[in-house]
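Consider the following assembly input.
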Amino acid sequence: MDFLAQHQPELLPRNRQLPPRGVIEAPHGTTIVAASFPGGVVLAGDRRATMGNVIAQRDIEKVFPADEYSAVGIAGTAGLAVEMVKLFQLELEHFEKVEGVSLSLEGKANRLSTMIRSNLGMAMQGLAVVPLFAGWDVDRQKGRIFSYDVTGGRSEEHGFAATGSGSLFARGALKKLFREDLTEGQATTLVVQALYDAADDDSATGGPDLARRIYPIVTVITDEGFRKLTEAECSEIVRAVHDRRLEEPDGPRAALL
Amino acid sequence: MSTPFYVSPQQAMADRAEYARKGIARGRSVVVLQYNDGVVFVAENPSRALHKVSEIYDRIAFAAVGKYNEFENLRIGGVRYADLRGYTYDRDDVTARGLANVYAQTLGTIFSSAGEKPYEVELIVAEVGAAPEDDQIYRLPHDGSIVDEHGSVAVGGNADQISSYLDQRHRDGMTLSEALKLAVESLARDTNGTERTLTAEQLEVAVLDRKRPQQRKFKRLLGRQLSRLLEEGSGSAPEAGAAEEAEEE
């Protein structure tokens, strides 16, 4: 990154001129959710990108591996977010190759924080990028989740987190369904349930599209590294959730007391 | 005021080449061999911290002999070049040929500029392709020339002797353990013909494995895995499955 700043400063987001005032219509990504379980962490995102009240893209991917033991999911302006992720991936890989060891999970989270902060000018113009970062902490042997605000403020979340326009509804669902002792399979079902609820109440979040076979992106990070669930695996979870919802449209009920 | 002695350009270059060659000849050698699933790098290097073999990019790796600070400098330059290329264009646009050209330019400029001393390094840049025919290995001597190599190559102190030993015995389609065994044999031969035994602790081994599912094909072979491969190569154990075993861990 320092090398880029010296040699090709125009490639870095922070060195760009701000656009003149006014609203830019650009595709926005929406909901990302994460939940941890004893052996790792899952990070998932819906597939919709919106531009105003138009669906810009039905099958956008918003969850990316950052490196072997971490992943980043992005809500906000899609173009800027994808570029930020690309630069973040590059930086982690570059560090690893030059130094011979990977950054600590904490180090990665801090680095992402600075990158979001450098985008503050754009965020003030309505082009915000707000990611969710999740990874397996190799030193502490557990999955961890970090959430951010537009100014780059970073906070570690315990258990679960959500970001993006549907995050309010997703967080509600996560709060009621999350337990400390989830298995990997239960955790993946949990995030799909949360995304389903987000899509249920937020028009900018896309629900699973069974007709087109567009399912949420679900990724799992454990001590074996990053893994993205295959389409078949996702489809199985989504169908199970969907079938139950045919009987109970609002999803599973939590106990009252 | 003293008048500087006149030194003919031929003499000056010969002196510089001699200086660099002597520097390189002091170190231990590195050998690079093609095998059926990729390219294997073997260096005699007891240090775990100072690497002679490193990853540059997805399919490209780097091996060097000579002065550590000088080739480390070149390695970091190479990683920067590759990452910048890949970020600006696409990951596929980073090639060993491009990287070798940059190294050749750098080494050539340093070698012929009057101010600096020539770098006492010799590099190998290798890229693994989709099939063995697409593998590329470039050797870059201290003066900035590029030599396109096939099959096997050695650089460092005892390079001439090791290369001829390898040339006679290396064949296409070797398994990893066979290639590794050959590489270790060649490194273990001293100039005076005696043989030493090299253990896994004294070796730095890495592969560019085209069968590796990840985008980044570079992998270091360490500890138990390396010892097992070495035993397999020297014993009469069946060779099949060596590559699969390398995939573990």
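The helical segments of chain A are 2-7, 78-99, 105-117, 120-124, 167-177, 184-201, 231-247. Ask yourself how this observation constrains the way the partners meet.
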